[in-house]
Amino acid sequence: MSETEKLTLRRADNQDRDALRRFAKEIWPGRREDVLERRWWWLTVPKQCLIAVSASGDIAAMAGDRQCRVAADGDVKRATDICDWYVSPRYAGQGLGRALVAELMEQYDLLFTISISDDAVAGFTRLGWSVPSSVSMSLSPVPALSRGIAAILARRTGDRFRLEEDDLSAPAIGTEFDDLWQRALPAGTLAMVRDSRELRWRLAVVPGRRYRSFRCYASGVLVGYMLARVIPRGTLPQLRGLPTGVIADFLVDGATRDAFVALLEPTLRWLVSQGAGVVVTMTTDPRFAHVLAQTGFLSPETLIVGRALRRLGTRSSTVFPGDRVRAARWYLTLADSDLDFTLGADAD
C-alpha cells in the first residue's frame, strides 16, 4: 500500500496541535513552531481547516478554508475561501494538494481563493480554475489630506444623511444590516453575503479585535456602513512599518451611492485620530475606486509608492464545479479574504 493510500482527509481538531507544530517546522524551517496555530482558522470552533493525516498522526498537507455564503446569479451558494494551502516536503508530488481541493469541491457549491502566491497560482491553474485576476489595494499616504478632500466632497450631499459611529459589537448588529444587504447586493456580480450573521461571525473570529463602525442613514434607514481599524507600527514592512489604518469593509445601498462619500470622511478622521500614518483599503467596484482616487488614494501604477502597493497587491481565482466564472465579476473588499484577519494578527 502506498503512503498516499494510508492518509486520511478530515477536519483538524485540538488533538492535532503537536502534529501541526511539526508540520509548521517542515514547511517553514526557522520560524516559530506555533505559527500555524495562531492562524484564525485554527482558533475557530469548529476549526476551519482540512488536513491529510498519516496513520502515525503526522499532517502531510493542509488547507485552511473560510466557510461562507456567496450570492451569485440570484442564488446563495455554500462557499469556501482556501486561505492556506500547504504540503509537507516529505509528501510532495503525491497529489495531496489536489486531493484536498477535490474534497472541498465535494462539500461546497463554490470555491475561491484570494491573495495567492505564485506557486498557488500555478497549482490552481493546473486544476482548471479561472485565470487569476489582479485585485489591487489602494493607499492614502497622507490620510489627513484625504480626509480633508473627502470632507469637501461630502458637502455636496448636504444634510441628506445622518451618521453614527461606535465600536462594532455583536448586540449592535441588528436586522437593519440584513435589510441593507438585500438592497445593496451588487447586480451581476459574485458577492460574499454581508448580513448580520456574517458580521457577528467576523467579530468572533479574532477575539479582542476592534472594529470602528460607521453607519449612514437616510430618512431613518441604514443605507451604508464602513468598518475600520488600525494595525500597529511595524506590522507591514512594505509600508516602512508605519501605523496603518485599514478600511476593512463597506457596503452601500446602490440607490444612494453618495453614502460612500459621506462615510469616508468620518472614517478617515477616526483613523487619523488613532495615529494611522497611512491608510489602505481594497475595492473592485469602479464607483468607489473613483471616489478613493479623488481623495488622494494611490494605485500600484503610481510612481514612488507603486512598488510597495504591488507587493501589497493580491489576486483572486474562482471555480464552480463544472463551470468557470470570471474572477473579475467579484465584489471584493479586504473583508472578503483572510487578509483582514491576518493583517496585524501577530501584534493584536
Q: What is this structure, in a nutshell?
A:
This protein is of the alpha+beta class and 348 residues long. The chain contains eleven helices and 15 strands.
CATH homologous group name of the largest domain: Gcn5-related N-acetyltransferase (GNAT)
Indicate the low-confidence ranges by residue numbers. none
Structural class: alpha+beta
Arithmetic mean of pLDDT: 83
- Cα-atom radius of gyration: 21 Å
What is the overall shape?
globular
The proportion of residues in beta strands is 25-35%
What is the number of helices? 11
CATH level 1 name of the largest domain: Alpha Beta
The CATH topology of the largest domain turns out to be Aminopeptidase
- Identify the CATH architecture of the largest domain: 3-Layer(aba) Sandwich
Task: Report the order of strands and helices.
Answer: EHHEEEHEHEEHEHEHEEEHEHHEEH
The profile of the biggest β sheet is: 9 strands, mixed
Distance N terminus to C terminus? 46 Å
Quaternary organization: single chain
Count all strands and give the number: 15
Number of structural domains: 2
